[in-house]
Backbone:
């Protein structure tokens, strides 16, 4: 069993987050309901901590967080829908 490390994401984790996000889009057979650009994720990293799970120094999971203020700037449809329903 591989050891999983959970940590606050840094800029060095960005490529892994983007790759995992891309690999898990519905067009690829995944279940992610939306995608964010590198720019959007970088802005989110400045706003709040983002979490990654690493195995053998590769991103195998991530949790992206955003404040309501950042969400309004980013215009991410899935986040807007969640906030509207809440």
Residues:
């Amino acid at each position: 069993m591989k050891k999983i490390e959970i940590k606050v994401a840094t800029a060095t984790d960005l490529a892994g987050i983007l790759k995992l996000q891309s690999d898990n889009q519905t067009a690829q057979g995944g279940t992610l309901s939306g995608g964010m650009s590198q720019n959007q994720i970088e802005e989110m990293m400045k706003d709040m901590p983002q979490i990654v799970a690493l195995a053998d120094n590769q991103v195998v999971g991530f949790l992206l967080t955003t404040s309501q203020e950042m969400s309004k700037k980013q215009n991410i449809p899935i986040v807007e829908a969640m906030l509207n329903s809440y």
Remarks:
- Helices lie at 14-23, 38-47, 68-74, 77-85.
- The chain is about 40% helix and 20% strand.
- Residues 14-23 form the longest helix (10 residues).
